[in-house]
Amino acid sequence: MKILKHTASLLLVLALFISCDDNENDPNPPSATAPETQSVLVGKSVDVTFSVSVDAGYESASISSSNGEASISSEPEAGATSGDIVVNYTGNTAGAGSIELTVTDTDGLTAEATAVINVGEEQKEFVITENITEDTTWEDGKTYVLGGRIIVEPNVTLTIEGGAVVKGEAGSGSNATTLLVARDATLNANGTAQAPIIFTSVADEITPEDIDNGNFGSPNLDETQSGLWGGVIVLGNAPISYSDDDGNDQTEAQIEGIPTSETLALYGGNDPSDSSGSLTYVTIRHGGTNIGQGNEINGLSLGGVGNGTTIENIEVVANQDDGVEWFGGTVNVTNVLVWNNGDDALDTDQDWQGTVDNVVTMSPDGSTMELDGPEGSSATVSGNAHTIQNVSSYVETNGSELIDVDANTNVNVSNVVFFGLATDDNGNADNMFSSDYADYASNSNGYAVTSIDAVLPSGTALADYFPQSLVDDGEVEEVADAQSGTGADTSVFDWTWASQAGALSNVGL
Asked: Mind giving me the DSSP string for 458-500?
């Protein structure tokens, strides 16, 4: 009997020993550790990394998420005893979100961990109050408010994506709001016909969402409201012909519209091929505020800009001063529309030696073109001309000269149609060609105005508006309408506010 008792005790001890030995050799259950709280913007994605320990070997993982979409982008290999599981998470709406991870080992044991995600609204509007001093991108879908005169400083590139809206705060005098691209700086503002870049006033309620929806016109401002902010100024190192107040020739000058205290507002140099970047599919609206008597800001001012710069598909609407003005330089410009500006549509100065091709001007208060040549001692030196060609100009009643030239103007103008010509209350022509045309035409360099068409009011003749010599030479002819063949190809302006508002079709273009 005692033998049986001892045998049972021995078997019990042996069983306990074997049981303890098995527990010591069993692998630990898996564990998973979530990272600290992560942040992501609505509609944007973030990678969230969990660390896992799996003594029995990794088998699988599953996830669920709240306020966002999640998927596993990487995980340990089967049988691995440790590693990372990376989950890609995209936020849905502003607020709290989470990812719940479940890890399973080869024994079927599981572990769970939860990562917390803060989903925030993406910032859509930025107020710019300091100069641009490092390479910067203004993005599609966002609005940038200029809080004053903002300068892209030398050796810095500002990139503006198509679909961005840039708005200028109200300001006048020395506080006039502008975007100024200094010499040796670069502006790459490249929109598209479907997503132009819009420069306008803070009073304009247009948004990037309007652009996305194909609505490029202001929802609240009239197309004639002007002077609400400054404008866009691009400066370069190309040659200019400038004479100071004492009559001394200078190789650089201070750009019009900016106080002389601003040292980064100088332009001019000796590099005809200089590049200031590129501007394409850009519309500039409601600008032209004054900083002083006779010192205004144009819609687009180009000072000493070289022909390494690309400028094409530009619209200027309701600028209080000129639409586009060149101050020397060599840059070429293609496809320009100027609508409802307060002075001249196109203005050239200081021996600009480029070409502007394919232009529509509508309802300028000044001349369609005010064209000047070199200054100082170079004014008497034979030189290259600038060229203006393929222009459709709707004039309306303003009493200004159609093309304003003088004895010093070095320009060749060709293929222009004038329409909307008017008469005064007495039936006399109210829009005259330049009173100084004879002085211009006597130049010995071959500069000339050629191939001009005009749609005349009833009861008037070509000689009522144009110099008799142009009429006699056959360089100006009467046509029935603005689409006679001479003038601009207006189909390239379908993307503009003027086109969307029906202004082109209203005047017969």
From this structure: TT--GGGTS-HHHHHTT-EEE-SSTTSSSS--GGGGTTSHHHH
